[in-house]
Amino acid sequence: MSRSDRTAVLAFLLAILVASFIVWAGSQGATSALGAPIFSMVVGLAFLMQWLAFIPAYLRQTERLFDVAGSITYIAVAGIAVWLSPPPDGRSLLLLSLVVVWAIRLGTFLFRRIRKVGKDGRFDEIKPSFVRFLSTWTLQGLWVTLTLGAALAAITASAHKDLGVFAVLGAVVWASGLAIETMADLQKNRFRACAENTGRFIRTGLWAWSRHPNYFGEIALWTGIAVIALPVLEGWQWTTIISPIFVTLLLTRVSGIPMLEKRANEKWGGEDAYESYKRRTAILIPRPPRRDKIQPPIS
Question: Considering only CA atoms, which of 167, 158, 162 is closest in space to residue 85?
Protein backbone atom coordinates (compact mmCIF):
# COMPACT_ATOMS: atom_id res chain seq x y z
CA MET A 1 0.00 0.00 0.00
CA SER A 2 1.38 3.38 -1.02
CA ARG A 3 1.85 6.26 1.37
CA SER A 4 -1.06 8.15 -0.19
CA ASP A 5 -3.31 5.11 0.25
CA ARG A 6 -2.31 4.79 3.91
CA THR A 7 -3.12 8.46 4.39
CA ALA A 8 -6.51 7.88 2.76
CA VAL A 9 -7.26 4.98 5.10
CA LEU A 10 -6.31 7.15 8.08
CA ALA A 11 -8.57 9.93 6.80
CA PHE A 12 -11.42 7.43 6.40
CA LEU A 13 -11.06 6.17 9.97
CA LEU A 14 -10.69 9.69 11.36
CA ALA A 15 -13.84 10.80 9.54
CA ILE A 16 -15.81 7.92 11.04
CA LEU A 17 -14.40 8.65 14.50
CA VAL A 18 -15.26 12.35 14.38
CA ALA A 19 -18.72 11.64 12.97
CA SER A 20 -19.33 9.10 15.74
CA PHE A 21 -18.57 11.71 18.38
CA ILE A 22 -20.88 14.25 16.72
CA VAL A 23 -23.59 11.56 16.54
CA TRP A 24 -23.23 10.88 20.25
CA ALA A 25 -23.22 14.55 21.19
CA GLY A 26 -26.05 15.57 18.88
CA SER A 27 -28.22 12.66 19.99
CA GLN A 28 -28.23 13.82 23.61
CA GLY A 29 -31.72 15.11 24.26
CA ALA A 30 -32.82 14.27 20.72
CA THR A 31 -36.11 12.59 19.87
CA SER A 32 -36.13 8.99 18.67
CA ALA A 33 -37.86 6.98 15.98
CA LEU A 34 -37.80 3.25 15.27
CA GLY A 35 -35.87 2.75 18.50
CA ALA A 36 -32.93 5.03 17.66
CA PRO A 37 -32.11 8.74 17.99
CA ILE A 38 -33.20 10.53 14.83
CA PHE A 39 -29.96 12.53 14.80
CA SER A 40 -27.88 9.35 14.54
CA MET A 41 -30.17 7.89 11.87
CA VAL A 42 -29.89 10.85 9.52
CA VAL A 43 -26.12 11.15 9.96
CA GLY A 44 -25.85 7.47 9.07
CA LEU A 45 -27.97 8.21 6.00
CA ALA A 46 -25.55 10.98 4.97
CA PHE A 47 -22.64 8.53 4.87
CA LEU A 48 -24.69 5.77 3.25
CA MET A 49 -25.69 8.08 0.40
CA GLN A 50 -22.04 8.97 -0.23
CA TRP A 51 -20.94 5.35 -0.32
CA LEU A 52 -23.78 4.37 -2.67
CA ALA A 53 -22.93 7.25 -5.03
CA PHE A 54 -19.26 6.26 -4.86
CA ILE A 55 -19.94 2.88 -6.53
CA PRO A 56 -21.01 4.17 -9.99
CA ALA A 57 -18.56 7.08 -9.71
CA TYR A 58 -15.64 4.70 -9.22
CA LEU A 59 -16.79 2.23 -11.87
CA ARG A 60 -17.19 5.03 -14.42
CA GLN A 61 -14.15 6.93 -13.13
CA THR A 62 -16.02 10.21 -12.93
CA GLU A 63 -16.32 13.01 -10.40
CA ARG A 64 -19.45 14.46 -12.00
CA LEU A 65 -21.67 12.90 -9.34
CA PHE A 66 -19.70 14.30 -6.42
CA ASP A 67 -21.15 17.79 -5.98
CA VAL A 68 -24.66 16.74 -7.01
CA ALA A 69 -24.62 13.88 -4.49
CA GLY A 70 -23.51 16.29 -1.78
CA SER A 71 -26.36 18.72 -2.46
CA ILE A 72 -28.98 15.96 -2.63
CA THR A 73 -27.66 14.56 0.65
CA TYR A 74 -28.19 17.88 2.44
CA ILE A 75 -31.79 18.04 1.27
CA ALA A 76 -32.53 14.38 2.02
CA VAL A 77 -30.94 14.41 5.48
CA ALA A 78 -32.62 17.62 6.63
CA GLY A 79 -35.96 16.62 5.09
CA ILE A 80 -36.02 13.17 6.67
CA ALA A 81 -35.00 14.64 10.04
CA VAL A 82 -38.04 16.92 9.92
CA TRP A 83 -40.30 14.09 8.70
CA LEU A 84 -39.25 11.65 11.44
CA SER A 85 -39.41 14.21 14.24
CA PRO A 86 -42.66 14.99 16.08
CA PRO A 87 -44.93 17.55 14.38
CA PRO A 88 -42.28 20.08 13.27
CA ASP A 89 -42.29 23.54 14.77
CA GLY A 90 -41.50 26.82 13.07
CA ARG A 91 -37.78 26.57 13.81
CA SER A 92 -37.47 23.16 12.15
CA LEU A 93 -39.38 24.27 9.06
CA LEU A 94 -37.32 27.46 8.83
CA LEU A 95 -34.04 25.53 9.06
CA LEU A 96 -35.20 23.00 6.49
CA SER A 97 -36.22 25.76 4.08
CA LEU A 98 -32.88 27.55 4.38
CA VAL A 99 -30.90 24.34 3.86
CA VAL A 100 -32.98 23.35 0.82
CA VAL A 101 -32.66 26.77 -0.82
CA TRP A 102 -28.89 26.80 -0.26
CA ALA A 103 -28.40 23.22 -1.49
CA ILE A 104 -30.43 23.76 -4.66
CA ARG A 105 -28.61 27.00 -5.45
CA LEU A 106 -25.12 25.65 -4.86
CA GLY A 107 -25.84 22.24 -6.37
CA THR A 108 -27.18 23.78 -9.56
CA PHE A 109 -24.21 26.13 -9.81
CA LEU A 110 -21.65 23.35 -9.32
CA PHE A 111 -23.45 20.98 -11.71
CA ARG A 112 -23.48 23.60 -14.47
CA ARG A 113 -19.82 24.33 -13.87
CA ILE A 114 -18.73 20.69 -14.10
CA ARG A 115 -20.80 20.22 -17.25
CA LYS A 116 -19.14 23.24 -18.83
CA VAL A 117 -15.59 22.43 -17.75
CA GLY A 118 -15.94 18.68 -18.22
CA LYS A 119 -13.93 17.56 -15.21
CA ASP A 120 -12.43 18.65 -11.91
CA GLY A 121 -8.65 18.41 -12.01
CA ARG A 122 -8.48 17.81 -8.25
CA PHE A 123 -9.75 14.27 -8.81
CA ASP A 124 -7.30 13.22 -11.56
CA GLU A 125 -4.90 11.42 -9.23
CA ILE A 126 -7.58 10.28 -6.78
CA LYS A 127 -10.10 8.49 -9.02
CA PRO A 128 -7.92 5.50 -10.03
CA SER A 129 -7.36 4.56 -6.38
CA PHE A 130 -10.28 2.76 -4.74
CA VAL A 131 -9.07 3.70 -1.25
CA ARG A 132 -8.38 7.36 -1.97
CA PHE A 133 -11.58 7.92 -3.94
CA LEU A 134 -13.70 6.19 -1.28
CA SER A 135 -12.02 8.28 1.39
CA THR A 136 -12.93 11.44 -0.52
CA TRP A 137 -16.61 10.46 -0.57
CA THR A 138 -16.43 9.56 3.12
CA LEU A 139 -14.99 12.98 3.92
CA GLN A 140 -17.94 14.51 2.09
CA GLY A 141 -20.19 12.58 4.47
CA LEU A 142 -18.29 14.14 7.36
CA TRP A 143 -18.56 17.55 5.70
CA VAL A 144 -22.35 17.20 5.54
CA THR A 145 -22.45 16.01 9.17
CA LEU A 146 -20.37 18.86 10.55
CA THR A 147 -21.93 21.69 8.53
CA LEU A 148 -25.49 20.48 9.06
CA GLY A 149 -24.93 19.41 12.67
CA ALA A 150 -26.42 22.44 14.43
CA ALA A 151 -29.50 22.42 12.21
CA LEU A 152 -30.03 18.69 12.74
CA ALA A 153 -29.62 19.04 16.50
CA ALA A 154 -32.27 21.77 16.58
CA ILE A 155 -34.65 19.88 14.30
CA THR A 156 -34.43 16.67 16.32
CA ALA A 157 -34.26 18.31 19.76
CA SER A 158 -36.91 17.31 22.26
CA ALA A 159 -37.08 20.92 23.50
CA HIS A 160 -39.09 23.41 21.47
CA LYS A 161 -39.23 27.19 21.70
CA ASP A 162 -41.11 29.81 19.73
CA LEU A 163 -39.23 31.69 17.07
CA GLY A 164 -37.73 34.85 18.47
CA VAL A 165 -34.87 37.29 18.08
CA PHE A 166 -32.33 34.53 17.40
CA ALA A 167 -34.42 33.26 14.49
CA VAL A 168 -34.74 36.74 12.99
CA LEU A 169 -31.06 37.53 13.46
CA GLY A 170 -29.98 34.18 12.07
CA ALA A 171 -32.26 34.48 9.05
CA VAL A 172 -30.87 37.94 8.27
CA VAL A 173 -27.28 36.68 8.53
CA TRP A 174 -28.14 33.65 6.37
CA ALA A 175 -29.86 35.77 3.72
CA SER A 176 -26.94 38.20 3.62
CA GLY A 177 -24.48 35.33 3.22
CA LEU A 178 -26.48 33.67 0.47
CA ALA A 179 -26.86 36.97 -1.39
CA ILE A 180 -23.10 37.63 -1.23
CA GLU A 181 -22.21 34.10 -2.32
CA THR A 182 -24.71 34.11 -5.18
CA MET A 183 -23.70 37.54 -6.45
CA ALA A 184 -20.00 36.68 -6.27
CA ASP A 185 -20.53 33.51 -8.29
CA LEU A 186 -22.62 35.35 -10.89
CA GLN A 187 -20.04 38.10 -11.25
CA LYS A 188 -17.24 35.59 -11.73
CA ASN A 189 -19.23 33.60 -14.28
CA ARG A 190 -19.95 36.73 -16.31
CA PHE A 191 -16.31 37.73 -16.13
CA ARG A 192 -15.15 34.35 -17.39
CA ALA A 193 -17.77 34.35 -20.14
CA CYS A 194 -16.03 37.29 -21.85
CA ALA A 195 -13.32 36.08 -24.21
CA GLU A 196 -11.27 39.21 -23.55
CA ASN A 197 -10.89 38.12 -19.91
CA THR A 198 -9.26 34.80 -20.74
CA GLY A 199 -6.21 34.32 -18.55
CA ARG A 200 -7.05 37.33 -16.40
CA PHE A 201 -8.24 37.59 -12.80
CA ILE A 202 -11.44 39.27 -11.65
CA ARG A 203 -11.13 42.44 -9.56
CA THR A 204 -14.50 44.12 -10.05
CA GLY A 205 -17.78 44.07 -8.13
CA LEU A 206 -17.60 42.15 -4.85
CA TRP A 207 -14.19 40.88 -5.94
CA ALA A 208 -12.85 44.42 -5.53
CA TRP A 209 -13.81 44.25 -1.85
CA SER A 210 -12.66 40.68 -1.16
CA ARG A 211 -10.46 38.17 -2.97
CA HIS A 212 -12.86 35.41 -1.90
CA PRO A 213 -16.33 36.95 -1.34
CA ASN A 214 -18.11 33.69 -2.16
CA TYR A 215 -16.35 31.98 0.75
CA PHE A 216 -17.28 34.82 3.07
CA GLY A 217 -20.90 34.35 2.04
CA GLU A 218 -20.69 30.60 2.70
CA ILE A 219 -19.31 31.16 6.20
CA ALA A 220 -21.96 33.79 6.95
CA LEU A 221 -24.93 31.66 5.91
CA TRP A 222 -23.86 28.68 8.04
CA THR A 223 -23.31 31.08 10.94
CA GLY A 224 -26.89 32.25 10.46
CA ILE A 225 -28.20 28.68 10.62
CA ALA A 226 -26.24 28.05 13.83
CA VAL A 227 -27.71 31.22 15.38
CA ILE A 228 -31.24 30.01 14.58
CA ALA A 229 -30.48 26.65 16.23
CA LEU A 230 -28.97 28.11 19.43
CA PRO A 231 -32.08 28.55 21.64
CA VAL A 232 -33.01 24.83 21.68
CA LEU A 233 -29.56 23.29 22.10
CA GLU A 234 -28.78 21.71 25.46
CA GLY A 235 -25.78 20.00 27.03
CA TRP A 236 -23.59 18.12 24.58
CA GLN A 237 -25.73 19.34 21.67
CA TRP A 238 -23.74 22.56 21.90
CA THR A 239 -20.90 20.62 20.29
CA THR A 240 -22.74 20.89 16.97
CA ILE A 241 -22.09 24.64 16.98
CA ILE A 242 -18.77 23.60 15.46
CA SER A 243 -20.66 23.91 12.14
CA PRO A 244 -19.66 27.50 11.18
CA ILE A 245 -16.24 27.02 12.82
CA PHE A 246 -15.63 23.95 10.67
CA VAL A 247 -16.69 25.77 7.50
CA THR A 248 -14.40 28.68 8.37
CA LEU A 249 -11.38 26.45 9.06
CA LEU A 250 -12.02 24.35 5.97
CA LEU A 251 -12.24 27.36 3.65
CA THR A 252 -9.48 29.46 5.21
CA ARG A 253 -6.94 26.83 6.24
CA VAL A 254 -7.45 23.66 4.17
CA SER A 255 -9.08 23.33 0.77
CA GLY A 256 -10.42 26.76 -0.04
CA ILE A 257 -8.38 29.94 0.16
CA PRO A 258 -4.91 28.34 0.53
CA MET A 259 -5.31 26.32 -2.68
CA LEU A 260 -6.73 29.21 -4.70
CA GLU A 261 -4.17 31.71 -3.41
CA LYS A 262 -1.35 29.32 -4.30
CA ARG A 263 -2.77 28.78 -7.77
CA ALA A 264 -3.21 32.51 -8.31
CA ASN A 265 0.33 33.28 -7.14
CA GLU A 266 1.71 30.68 -9.53
CA LYS A 267 -0.27 32.19 -12.40
CA TRP A 268 -0.08 35.95 -11.78
CA GLY A 269 2.49 36.36 -9.01
CA GLY A 270 4.99 39.11 -9.83
CA GLU A 271 2.61 40.95 -12.15
CA ASP A 272 2.18 44.57 -11.04
CA ALA A 273 -1.61 44.51 -11.43
CA TYR A 274 -2.03 41.35 -9.39
CA GLU A 275 0.38 42.36 -6.65
CA SER A 276 -1.42 45.70 -6.37
CA TYR A 277 -4.76 43.88 -6.18
CA LYS A 278 -3.48 41.72 -3.33
CA ARG A 279 -2.24 44.74 -1.41
CA ARG A 280 -5.47 46.68 -1.85
CA THR A 281 -8.05 43.92 -1.39
CA ALA A 282 -9.04 41.98 1.76
CA ILE A 283 -8.46 38.26 1.52
CA LEU A 284 -11.87 37.30 2.98
CA ILE A 285 -14.01 39.82 4.90
CA PRO A 286 -15.25 42.43 2.38
CA ARG A 287 -14.15 46.03 2.85
CA PRO A 288 -13.52 48.99 0.52
CA PRO A 289 -10.22 48.55 -1.34
CA ARG A 290 -7.26 50.32 0.16
CA ARG A 291 -5.27 52.92 -1.70
CA ASP A 292 -2.13 51.28 -3.06
CA LYS A 293 0.84 53.35 -1.92
CA ILE A 294 3.20 51.43 -4.15
CA GLN A 295 2.89 52.59 -7.73
CA PRO A 296 3.97 50.28 -10.56
CA PRO A 297 6.79 51.55 -12.76
CA ILE A 298 5.78 53.41 -15.90
CA SER A 299 6.57 51.31 -18.95
Answer: 158
